[in-house]
Write a structure and sequence with these properties.
single chain, about 475 residues, alpha/beta, FAD/NAD(P)-binding domain, Flavin-containing monooxygenase, Flavin_mOase-like, monooxygenase activity
């Protein structure tokens, strides 16, 4: 394999394979390679193996814009998503460009040669690859470790303690009492899945509630549209419908939070047993979409509670005991297995560091141009999806924009492109989002600006128009 390519993509997950497919179909003359630290493609969808793992966004928007999602599930299981990603890689010839076992540690830009030199660890050795353009598609999760706070007394617990990110393949929960600590997307997925695996009982132990909204497992509109228009004709229509519905729900949440709070509560009450204490266990103190809403297919979590297979306890942990968890209220939860669904850790650019002409780049000191490039860092792009919509909606837009930039550079013989803010642009946190994993990593993330094109809207409809129509000669991007 060549040690120099036109474009070097880091990460062979949903974003990286999508980026590579865009290069293949839109810029076939460009040479590229994909560096993947793990031994398999698929990223998140290959890493997470806990029971019930599935999407928390509908698949008609989590799927690529250029390749229809052919399944009939709105919220698909992890294995189906992994197959979809790998089939896309095969269809576009991406697989032959992936170099596995290449964990990128550092990337150094040299203005004299207008090239990146990327250092990767391969079987304990260092390997260097040069590229004209570097594209980080490693997401922002730490794949080696999840967020795992220490609990008082956990060392004396005599059962099994497991984090979902490192789920043992041989863990059998049949006839066992399981406590799942957490209330986010992973927890609400695990609880009904573990109940279906025959656990004696599953308890979701949460410090505070999360908004949980039932969603039909299968999109009936998609099925009807596919029957009439066929797969390719229906996909853009279904995708557009789901984008509009999700955007409307988000905007209503931000402007009329009491209305959405009431709608969610009404849906919860309808699916839970009569007299269930909804306001204790499913009424958060924050407004909808201050944190991400949790979607449950066909209300499976509520069904597990109604059937008596699962329960929810809202309390805090005082200490672990030999046989379970003792709560601040004095209640004791007996457990054979405790699952710490306590969240994720962020890791920007897969943990790789950047330097420009020998000077180390601190991402937090840089401003994000259109949430995809860093101020003062030439020939570099990164892909990060939306927090309030499907990841791939933004990933596709980033890919389209990067293709435009690369086409412009090749057409005009430009060697470098770099975004530069003027002194009037003030910085602000990149993500206006109150999730714990964002708060914990705020000091690591780049900033956004207060005005376009530095301002991040978190609005797909706005971005779709802005990014596809925006002039590259915007006074910010400098081509040389």
């Amino acid at each position: 394999m060549s040690d120099h390519v036109d474009v070097l993509i880091v990460g062979a997950g949903l974003s990286g394979i999508g980026a590579a497919a865009h290069l293949t179909k839109d810029l076939p003359e460009v040479t590229y390679a994909v560096l993947e630290g793990r031994a398999a493609s698929g990223g998140t969808w290959d890493l997470f193996r806990y029971p019930g793992v599935r999407s928390d966004s509908d698949m008609f928007t989590l799927g690529y814009r250029f390749r229809p999602w052919r399944g009939d599930k709105a919220l698909a299981d992890g294995a189906s998503i992994l197959a979809y990603v790998r089939e896309t890689a095969a269809d576009y010839g991406v697989e032959e460009h992936i170099r596995y076992g290449h964990r990128v540690t550092h990337a150094a830009w040299d203005s004299a040669t207008a090239r990146w030199t990327v250092t990767a660890e391969v079987d304990g050795d260092e390997r260097r690859i040069t590229a004209d353009f570097l594209w980080s598609c490693s997401g922002y999760y730490d794949y080696d470790r999840g967020h795992r706070p220490h609990f008082e007394g956990e060392e004396r617990f005599g059962g099994t303690l497991v984090h979902p990110q490192h789920w043992p393949a041989d863990l059998d929960v049949a006839d066992k009492r399981v406590v799942v600590i957490g209330s986010g997307a992973t927890a609400v997925t695990l609880v009904p899945a573990l109940a279906e695996q025959g656990a004696a009982h599953v308890t979701m132990l949460q410090r505070s509630p999360t908004y949980v909204l039932p969603l039909a497992a299968r999109d009936r509109f998609a099925g009807a549209a596919r029957t009439v228009l066929g797969e390719r004709g229906s996909y853009p229509l279904v995708r557009a419908k789901n984008v509009l519905v999700a955007t409307a729900l988000y905007q209503l949440s931000r402007h009329r939070p009491a209305v959405v709070r009431g709608l969610v509560r009404k849906a919860n009450v309808a699916l839970l047993p009569p007299g269930y204490d909804v306001d204790t266990h499913f009424r958060p103190t924050y407004d909808p979409w201050d944190q991400r809403l949790c979607l449950v297919p066909d209300g499976d979590l509520f069904r597990a509670i109604s059937d008596g297979a699962a329960s929810v306890v809202t309390d805090t942990i005082r200490t672990f005991t030999e046989t379970g968890v003792e709560l601040a209220s004095g209640e004791h939860l007996d457990a054979d297995v405790v699952v710490t669904a306590t969240g994720l850790e962020l890791l920007l650019f897969g943990g790789a560091t950047l330097s420009v002409d020998g000077e180390q780049v601190d991402p937090h000191d840089r401003m994000a141009y259109r949430a995809m490039m860093l101020s003062g860092v030439p020939n570099f792009a990164f892909t990060i999806g939306y927090t309030n919509a499907s990841w791939t909606l933004k990933a596709d837009l980033v890919s389209e924009y990067v293709v435009r930039v690369l086409r412009r550079m090749r057409g005009e013989g430009r060697r470098t492109v770099v975004p530069t803010p003027d002194d009037s642009v003030e910085g602000a946190p990149l993500m206006d989002f109150d999730a714990g994993y964002v708060r914990r990593a705020a000091h690591l993330l780049p900033q956004q600006g207060t005005v376009a094109p530095w301002r991040l809207k978190q609005n797909y409809l706005y971005d779709a128009l802005a990014l596809r129509r925006a002039r590259l000669d915007d006074g910010v991007l400098t081509f040389r």
